[in-house]
Structures are given as structure tokens and as C-alpha cells.
Write a structure and sequence with these properties.
With about 290 residues, the chain is mainly alpha-helical. The chain has 13 helices and no strands.
């Protein structure tokens, strides 16, 4: 991996995670739109934007050639995972569970470490293993006490962790992979919009917000997929702290969601795990 590739990967990763960290502000404006319809609009408008990019870059034949066999099967799986992730996240914002969403994305970096170790064979040290264990204790505390919608946190963490893992090993670039994933989802999305008993599009200012869903959705995913191919998967875990930190601040300071004692304990353990992992991943000085 070259230094330029690593640097561009870092910039792309930071851009993706900051965008996701601020996403609740956008989704909050769509609170009156059913979550499934928001998801459907995200898919449809994303595909239109991606198709325009693919045509402008004349990438169509190359994408079709790449999206076959094992790669196509992997993209079917990643499309299903990202659809679940989007839907749960939209629901979390609209139902006042941004705090639980941020917890899910705090868990995700350490889940990435575990997946990178178990599936990809990436080596981690004792301190990093301890970090994963501390985070697991935090999740267990919340599960036992029942102080929040833990299913939201775990669904977001596992769906996006597995999505990123699949995208890292799929033999297709960022633009091609996202275009194929979105194309696979557009049929169900159009069915949702067509069969919806209360469609919201065409009824006012919300139309522009729904159209913008294409850019809001595609841009960070393209940046993330490109970063995943340039960086170690465990390095992405370090960058991902940006998104849940922004989400946590929005939940408490902007949306005024209640921060209970069990949340404080859980977040303290998760943050400790993140700090341990960062400490264990610091560059070591060469001995003279």
C-alpha cells in the first residue's frame, strides 16, 4: 500500500464518517415521512445519480463485466445488509433513538476489529483484544439492565460491519459495487412507493428533501467503499469514532434525548474499549 493511497483513504474515510455523523439532522427533517418510504426514495434517487455518473464516466460495460458470479452474489448480500441498516437507522432517528444509534456505531469499530481478525486474519495485540472484551461488557450491561432499545444498536453494528467486510472482499470498485447494490434494491423500492396507501411525494417542500436523498446516500457510501479498499479494515474502526461521536452529541444537545444511568455506564465501557484499541494501535518507535 503506497503512502498516497493511505492518505487518500484517510481523507475519504473522514469525509464518509463526518457525513454519517451529521445525517440525523437531515433525516429529522423527514420525520413526517414513513421510514420505509424514506428508504425507498433513498434507493431510487441514489440509482438515478449513480447511473448518471456511470454514463458520464463510460463505466457501464466494465461494471457489468465485474458484477458476475461470486461478486454478484456478494453484492446481493451487501445490498440486503445496507437496506436493513438504512431502514433501522431512519426508524431510530424518527422515533427518538439517536442515542441507541450512536451506541451501535460505537460498537461497530470494535466489531470491525473482531471481523478483521476472525475472517481476514488480521493480527491484533493483547491490548486490542482487551478493548473488544471491554466493549462486549458494555453491551452486556445494557442488555441485562434493559435501559434502551439495544436491538437498534446491535442491528446497526452488525449490519454495517458485515456490509463493510463484504465490500472489502468483493472484486469490484466503489462506484460499480454501489451502483449494482442500488440497482438490486430499486425493484422493491419502486414497489413500496407504488403500493403505498399514503404516498408523500408531490405534496410540497418535502419533495426536494427526498430528491436530495440520492446525494446524501451515495456520497458517503462511495467514500466509505473507496476508503475500505485503501485501508486496513481495523484502521476503519479508528476513523468510525467520528460518526457516533457526532450522533451522540446531536442526540443529547440537539434532540434532547434522555441520558440514563445505564447509558452512561454502557458508553463509558464502550469509550474505554475504543481508547484501549487506539492505544494498542499507536505506532511503535523503532528501537535503536
Amino acid at each position: 500500500m503506497t503512502e498516497n493511497s493511505h492518505r487518500s483513504g484517510l481523507l475519504l474515510g473522514v469525509g464518509a464518517y463526518v457525513s454519517w455523523g451529521l445525517l440525523p439532522l437531515y433525516l429529522h427533517l423527514l420525520t413526517g415521512v414513513p421510514a420505509l418510504q424514506v428508504l425507498a426514495h433513498r434507493v431510487v434517487w441514489s440509482l438515478l445519480l449513480l447511473a448518471a455518473i456511470v454514463l458520464a464516466m463510460r463505466r457501464g460495460p466494465a461494471i457489468v463485466a465485474a458484477a458476475r458470479g461470486r461478486t454478484l452474489l456478494l453484492l446481493c448480500a451487501s445490498a440486503a445488509l445496507i437496506a436493513v441498516n438504512w431502514l433501522v437507522y431512519i426508524f431510530a432517528v424518527q422515533s427518538g433513538h439517536v442515542l441507541e444509534a450512536s451506541l451501535g456505531y460505537f460498537i461497530n469499530p470494535l466489531l470491525n476489529v473482531a471481523l478483521g481478525t476472525i475472517v481476514l486474519g488480521e493480527r491484533i495485540g493483547t491490548v486490542q483484544k482487551a478493548a473488544v472484551a471491554v466493549a462486549a461488557i458494555g453491551v452486556a450491561v445494557l442488555a441485562i439492565v434493559g435501559g434502551g432499545a439495544l436491538w437498534i444498536s446491535l442491528t446497526l453494528a452488525f449490519s454495517f460491519g458485515l456490509y463493510g467486510l463484504i465490500r472489502k472482499v468483493a472484486a469490484i470498485d466503489a462506484l460499480g459495487g454501489l451502483t449494482v447494490e442500488t440497482a438490486l434494491l430499486v425493484g422493491p423500492a419502486l414497489a413500496v412507493l407504488w403500493l403505498s396507501p399514503q404516498p408523500v411525494f408531490g405534496r410540497g417542500h418535502v419533495d426536494l428533501l427526498l430528491v436530495l436523498a440520492g446525494a446524501v446516500t451515495a456520497a458517503p457510501l462511495l467514500m466509505f467503499a473507496a476508503a475500505a479498499r485503501r485501508l486496513r479494515y481495523s484502521t476503519l474502526g479508528l476513523l468510525q469514532y467520528l460518526a457516533p461521536t457526532l450522533q451522540f452529541l446531536l442526540a443529547v444537545l440537539v434532540f434532547h434525548e434522555p441520558l440514563r444511568g445505564v447509558h452512561i455506564i454502557t458508553f463509558a465501557l464502550i469509550w474505554s474499549g475504543c481508547a484501549l484499541y487506539a492505544f494498542g494501535s499507536r505506532p511503535r518507535r523503532a528501537t535503536p
